[in-house]
Design a protein that fits this description.
The protein has a domain of 116 residues: Serine Threonine Protein Phosphatase 5, Tetratricopeptide repeat (Alpha Horseshoe), CATH 1.25.40. It is built from 30 helices and no strands. Helix 10 runs antiparallel to helix 11 and helix 18 packs antiparallel against helix 19. It is globular. The two termini are 56 Å apart.
């Protein structure tokens, strides 16, 4: 009996043993290797107090690093400061303390420490570079411009100096100069902060609206980073830039295991979750947790405020931003964020109250300028909106969205010459259209639609069609499931490959009508669609565009007639669309099942580590 029991127990143990030694899948192997490198990096034994402070900064614990630098500074100030090397040591420690406070986004304290450091070593270009990067966020623009002029005249290829100049150029929206500085910095060998240079190039392209190479730049930044945490954060940014939020979440989760108390991975993860279906509530919870960490950032607080408003808690959103104002009275960001939220809920006067403070703190903020103009535009006060737009373009001459707004408002006020000049200036500032991301393609499309509408009003049909084709090529088109495409309100991208003269004319009228609807010239939209339908009466979609235009124009009698015509044409399409949706869903499910099976197989001896 005992022997039988032991035999059964032994069989159970063997079964459990075999289960536990099953080969891990590819993702598990990759995660384990990444975590192993992180453990080795963050658990290394410091060789000195300076090395310990550096490790603490890499762990995003500037509060503890400051303690080490403070004790070293007290000791350094007791030395003979008549000697240059002793003064330079004091200056270096003050700069390192400033850098630590900067990491905590305490720019005002950082700025004071950098200035104090200059008294001991006024010629240190590293200190000047760091000071420039803290003068801007604290609103000391005159001093920043003076220091920028000084640094720009230096004949140096020091990557620290070049990055500081690039950051200043980015702040002034001079993206060409910013890119030029960063490309110079990128060429410097043995730069331990190359990953920051690469990240800044990617961020500059995002601000310019350029899609090309952004993901690959983040990937290069990830591979160049010494810290595994910074590497995973860069891979997460790569996922967001590639519109692959699931990939981004995976990397932010890996970063979380390395430094669970940091705020950066939390804000990144909240952004990734927000971009995924049915995970908005989870994103909201992560945003709440982020502001409870030791390190507070503008991004984490404004992200939570946006989430609170989206969840129907506008008062809590305002409270969140009021807290940020109290913590950072020098910063225009909380005022801009609160003004934007107020405008979004229809309180234009309340928005301006906040935005005017933001403008006073930073007159060159393009975001503040566009929100101010929009607050008047939403009230229908177009004359004031145009006046503010012209005034702010003196402060923000390279802001593309302001130029487009000026074009739109001037057109509505029938100042066609000013409108045309504004749209042309916007297009001159926009990078090559084939390189643009989806957001900036739509901005370019808006400018082309404006120019096309102006040409249409002036009876220059050839130019109007040319601009309408550009609008058609660049406009944003939402991707809808087949069962929602039974009735389409606006045309997809129109092709001009047909050799039929009647179909070509119908297509030209369709893109013209779509462009005119974009600029709210609804009466002309109806006229163009009516003629397009006459030329191509069998096109079901064209009838739906026409019906939508009639409704927009409040032409209810004609809309009722067109509704009868369209209804008869949609009967057969409904069944076909639902069948196609079901077929595509089944096909997608089979593919996902196959991909999952392939992902779990790890060939023996293969290295699946990140970045291999």
């Amino acid at each position: 009996m005992v022997a039988t029991s032991l035999l059964i127990a032994n069989q159970f143990c063997l079964g459990a043993s075999f289960a536990n030694t099953s080969r891990p899948n590819k993702l598990e192997v990759e995660r384990a290797e990444v975590q192993k490198r992180a453990d080795e990096f963050f658990n290394r034994k410091p060789k000195s107090q300076a090395d310990k402070a550096l490790l603490l900064l890499q762990k995003y614990r500037p509060d503890l690093a400051i303690g080490i630098y403070t004790r070293a500074l007290i000791k350094a100030t007791k030395q003979d400061l008549s000697k240059k090397e002793n003064r330079q040591n004091v200056a270096r420690l003050l700069t390192l303390m400033g850098r630590s406070f900067k990491l905590d986004e305490s720019d005002q304290v950082a700025c004071a420490l950098y200035k104090m450091s200059r008294k001991y070593d006024p010629d240190d270009t590293t200190n000047k570079s760091f000071l420039l990067e803290s003068l801007v966020p604290t609103g000391q623009f005159a001093e920043a411009k003076k220091l920028q002029d000084e640094l720009s005249k230096l004949k140096t290829e020091d990557p620290t100096v070049l990055r500081a100049l690039a950051n200043y150029a980015m702040f002034t929206e001079d993206y060409e100069a910013c890119t030029a500085y960063l490309e110079r910095a990128r060429k410097q060998k043995d730069d331990p902060l190359l990953y920051i240079t690469l990240r800044l190039i990617a961020q500059t392209r995002i601000r310019q609206g350029i899609e090309q190479q952004v993901a690959s730049l983040f990937e290069a930044s990830a591979k160049a980073a010494e810290s595994p945490y910074e590497s995973e954060m860069a891979y997460g940014s790569m996922g967001l830039a590639s519109m692959k939020p699931a990939d981004a979440e995976e990397h932010f989760n890996r970063a979380a295991k390395m430094l669970p108390d940091d705020v950066a991975w939390m804000t990144g993860r909240a952004q990734a979750l927000c971009a995924m279906p049915n995970r908005a509530d989870e994103s909201f919870q992560v945003a709440i947790e982020a502001v409870q960490k030791k390190r507070l950032t503008n991004r984490s607080m404004t992200q939570l405020a946006n989430a609170l408003q989206a969840h129907g808690q506008p008062k809590d959103a305002d409270t969140c931003l009021e807290r940020l104002k109290a913590l950072k009275p020098w910063s225009w960001h909380p005022y801009l964020a609160k003004g934007r939220l107020a405008r979004c809920r229809g309180d234009n006067a309340g928005a301006r109250k906040e935005l005017l403070v933001a403008e006073k703190l930073n007159p060159t903020s393009g975001g503040t300028a566009t929100e101010l103009v929009s607050s008047y535009q939403c009230e229908g006060n177009l004359k004031e909106a145009l006046a503010v737009c012209k005034r702010k373009l003196n402060d923000c001459p390279k802001n593309i969205q302001l130029w487009i707004k000026r074009g739109q408002i001037a057109r509505e006020l029938k100042d066609y010459a000013d409108s045309k000049a504004a749209y042309q200036q916007a297009l001159a500032l926009i990078p090559a259209e084939e390189t643009l991301n989806i957001v900036w393609k739509n901005e370019a499309a808006a400018a082309h639609a404006g120019l096309g509408t102006l040409a249409y009003i002036a009876n220059d049909r050839a130019t109007a069609i040319k601009e309408a084709r550009e609008y058609n090529k660049l406009k944003f088109i939402p991707q809808l499931p087949p069962w929602l495409t039974i009735l389409v309100l606006r045309p997809n991208r129109i092709s001009f490959t047909s050799t039929s003269k009647k179909e070509l004319e119908a297509n030209e009228r369709t893109v013209l009508a779509d462009m005119l609807l974009e600029t709210r010239n609804v009466k002309d939209t109806v006229a163009e669609y009516a003629k397009a339908v006459e030329l191509n009466p069998s096109d079901v979609d064209l009838h739906s565009y026409y019906l939508n235009a009639l409704v927009e124009n409040n032409n209810w009698v004609e809309a009722a007639k067109e509704d009868v015509v369209l209804s008869s044409k949609l009967v057969g399409r409904a069944a076909d669309s639902v069948a196609k949706w079901a077929k595509d869903k089944d096909k997608k499910g089979k593919k996902e099942k196959k991909d999952s099976k392939d992902a779990n197989a790890v060939p023996q001896g293969q290295n699946n580590g990140q970045g291999s």
